[in-house]
Amino acid sequence: MSDRNLTSSAVSRQPGTAALPARLPRPAPNGLPNSPGSKGSDPAIPDPLNYCSDVIYQICTDRFAGGRFPLGASPAGTKLYCGGDWPGLVGKLEDGYFSRLGVTALWISQPVDNIDAVVDYEGVKHTSYHGYWARDFKRTNARFGSFDDFRRLVAAAHDRGIKIVIDFAPNHTSPAMETDPSFAENGRLYDDGRLLGGYTGDAEGLFHHNGGTDFLTTENDIYRNLYDMADLNHLHPVIDRYFKEAIRLWLDLGIDGIRVDAVKHMPAGWQKNWLASIYGCRPVFVFGEWFLGSPDADPEHAKFANKSGMSLLDFRLSQQVRRVFRDRTATMYDLDETILATVSDYERANSLVTFLDSHDMARFKADHVPDRSVELALVFLLTSRGVPAVYYGTEQYMSGEKDPHNRETMRSFSETTVAFRAIRTLAALRRRNPALAYGTTSRLSIGRDAYVFERRFGSSVAVVAINRDLERSFPVRGIVSSLPTGLYPDALEGLLGGRPTMSADGRLPDFELGPGAAAVWHDARVAPPEEAEPLVGHVGPPMGRAGGELAIGGSGFGPRPGAVLFGGAELPDDHVLSWSDSAIRARVPGVPGGRYEAGVRTAAGRESRSPAGGGFFEVLSGEQMAVRFVVRRAWTEWGENVFVAGDVSELGGWNPERAIGPFANQVLFAYPDWYCDVSVPAGAEIRFKFLKRNGSSVRWESGPDRRFRTPRSGTATVTCDWR
Ligand code: NOJ
Ligand code: NOJ
Ligand code: CA
């Protein structure tokens, strides 16, 4: 390594190794809006950054409730609009259905204007009732309501402490055909009513024209169409700016979260730059959809969750839960293993969004699935790690295989089903007991069909016992738990046949867990401030710029403000915006880009730990922009891939292990030419080089460092010849 490598490596920080002054400097003013920063501390106003103690309820807007007229049963298999809308949701908020169910966030269909065309596929009429066929991301889908209706929805939700999460699908517009402009609406995209372009005759290159993906490579998935949907070219400056403006409009309407559709199908570097603009505007919780069909490990999935700056839907755990509780093709041992494996593969496992089913899979309930299995799976979902999302109708045991049968109109609003009561009880428990929100998981007892596990966060503990065998009871013998000596009632109050009380004294007495039974015994006693240990359970958003805001969630921070630690150094007092025993808001300090551990020192001088991880924050080196790096004539040996590294943290700070890549070489450019879209600081002089990497063996380019001055805004392409 050259001398300069040593100096420039100081720019990037590894966890815990940051050599920072004890008191951090103030960041340079960067034009970020000043916000009051009181959100985290007032329980009545939902915190849009931390969802760990929430339960999300996923709604297909068209299929849930009608405001203009009531929804009847949807005709079987219809892909036509059924009439659900935002006034309908307001009605349900007002009548208290969601509050009584205990859910604290509603994830609704993409709200933006969608095409009117009815598309005939194999004789079946298809419409945009699902919201994924956008036309104008700056207008509302009039079938769901107007902007005023949307504002009323947000207000009605916030009045009840409920968050609004919108689905958002910037990957594509709508179905289009390269050869037929009259097909559907030709994928046309509008900017608040002004036509930007359509799919055919796209001289400007707003869209990709590389055919459909075969789902075989990440590159195909990104730069070819998802099915027949007109795939947007995010590196086009018009598209890049459009999506920054469009999401800002929805943020300004007060949304609390974003579920990003099809993140596997958009350049990760573009998404990071887009997220940075979201977090710089008004940070909210963002989670992406990267579909996985099985619980098997997918390193790309984990890499995206750890590095993209957003969380993900937890397909891995969810597919395993389905195997275990629904289809019985896997055992409790597999479930336990998936929990263990995901906690080690995902840095923020407690922020992954878990679920039993969704609009993209057969509903959990089916003829071969007894109600009790749904209930047991719900108990697992709501007590295990991750932010649970309940798909609408699960509490009413709705069934239905592939879409649209899994998206039928809401069948009833009964509040007496066992599933409804289990959700209500456990959602309340998630809010009360930080062990469920932030805790680690350990197995206490296990068999093929039964699982007893403990969630623990400092002195908060929950023990969960589930027996999926509906015929035989399971003997629980000799287990040791962290529940302090005492007598614990089953939080489910025997709803699922659990033993009514459990005595604990370090050990739990031997007991029989009845057939199909589940129980939860827990302790959320709060230690007196002088004894409380500060524990960090969540830091969010995962990244941002100096001057932006971050939320720290956990317990034991104490009633009086202490200090917020960032990479081990204390933030100046005026960077601490609000402080309560469980939630802190702080301003990101003006430190060099890189990863920092965020922590807390209490007024009594105790420093926090982060028992389940997730305490990291990535400081960006500046405002971000997407740059396409192209390197031509880079011949490689078998197994080698091309990467780029450079002097900013976004380029890995010259560390080849953190270099950005692998580059692609098939669709937009073909081998021996390679390309990759990367988020880098805007308006900055960056130095970089390409390298060829195969595992740990690295071949750098020769010659001096390359330099590039990135523009202040827009997007850019840098084209080089390998040397
Ligand atoms: C980055 C350096 O600045 C560059 O000059 C060198 O070739 C590579 N690292 C490999 O050490
Ligand atoms: C995933 C969505 O969840 C699915 O319903 C949709 O059809 C595709 N992405 C395309 O938007
Ligand atoms: Ca794409």
Summarize the structure in words.
Helices cover 19% and strands 27% of the residues. The chain is an alpha+beta fold. Among the domains are: 440-523, Immunoglobulin-like; 535-619, Immunoglobulins (Immunoglobulin-like); 624-721, Immunoglobulins (Immunoglobulin-like, Sandwich). Strands 14-13-12-7-2-1-16-15 form an eight-stranded parallel β-sheet. A hairpin with a 2-residue loop joins strand 37 and strand 38. It is globular and about 70 Å long. The two termini are 18 Å apart. The relative contact order is 0.12. The model is unreliable at 1-21 and 25-43 (pLDDT under 50). It binds 1-deoxynojirimycin (2 copies) and calcium ion.
Quote the distance from N terminus to C terminus: 18 Å
| CATH fold-level topology of one domain | Immunoglobulin-like
Number of helices: 13
CATH architecture of one domain: Sandwich
Query: Largest sheet, if any?
Result: 8 strands, parallel
Q: Bound small molecules, which ones?
A: 1-deoxynojirimycin, calcium ion
Estimated structural class? alpha+beta
Estimate percent helicity. Answer: 10-25%
Mean pLDDT: 93
Find the CATH superfamily of one domain: Immunoglobulins
Radius of gyration: 26 Å
State which percent range the strand residues make up. 25-35%
How are strands sequenced across the largest beta sheet?
14-13-12-7-2-1-16-15
Number of strands: 40
CATH level-1 class of one domain: Mainly Beta
In the predicted model, the low-confidence regions spanning at least 5 consecutive residues are 1-21, 25-43
Principal-axes geometry comes out as: globular
